[in-house]
UniProtKB/TrEMBL annotation:
It comes from Paenibacillus pasadenensis. PROSITE patterns: ACT (PS51671), PREPHENATE_DEHYDR_1 (PS00857), PREPHENATE_DEHYDR_3 (PS51171). Its EC number is 4.2.1.51. This is Prephenate dehydratase. Pathway: Amino-acid biosynthesis; L-phenylalanine biosynthesis; phenylpyruvate from prephenate: step 1/1. The lineage of its organism: Bacteria, Bacillati, Bacillota, Bacilli, Bacillales.
Amino acid sequence: MMKVALLPVVSTSDEAARSLCGEDGAERVYYPMISDVFLSTVEGRTDYSVIPIENTIEGSVNLHMDWLLHEVDLPIQAEWIYPSRQQLIGHRGELCGEDGEPEYGRIVRVLSHPVAMAQCHSFLRANLQHAEWEHVSSTAEAVKIVSENPGKGWAAIGLTLAAAHYGLDVIRPGVTDHDNNYTRFLLVGREPFELRESPVRKTSILVTLPEDFPGALHQVLSAFAWRRINLARIESRPTKKRLGTYHFVIDIEMALDTVLLPAALQEIEAIGCQVRVLGSYPSFGSTAPELAQAAAESRA
């Protein structure tokens, strides 16, 4: 059975991994930090790493993107979209009144991962502006810390699964600011992902422009445009070599072995660009019906 490295048990990464692989399709190995997740696969202790890479509200997760681009060389083997539904979690008897409704004035500290906290910013500003906001390594870690510190007026933003796991209560469900909040995950590793199939395939590349070629980015985009190759996303990332110099991460809605794409990449290289293929991979759960089908398959 394949081994998958991911952030802690009952984190969003844990739920997302279960949605892709099913409950028994992979052995899940949990780590506290994203660096540990990546290095586990680099060093051969696991076959794949599960990486949350982009969110509807916050955009790219910069730290995770930088690890993928600069610290490791692990090809992308799959991507999938998973809904992010955050709850306010704590000890009900401590944080709620006799009617069972939350009394926010009792909360003195709220903990969560910075991305999850940003997803709930409007709720926090409206109800918990008086409290201390503390960032931790994952939503699961936040819930765990609160479970270990009863009587202090602490609460966490995390998942219902985490609340049940650590014996806490959902004080206020659905505190995410937007209902259409989804996170894009990548599965990275050295071997192709074969547990599930998808008719949708993508290719991701990293393009570094020549420094002495005005209009190079325009020519890069033109190489795709005149071939009618659709780009799902383009993002600039610092090269970390000199201020004002950037790579461009481009997600292409086409498999690498399609006739048109290799020619487009050759054209880009011909004008002096460096092209690094980050992966050509199946894509799952890009639409609501696909998400529902993926969830049903993972429960089957």
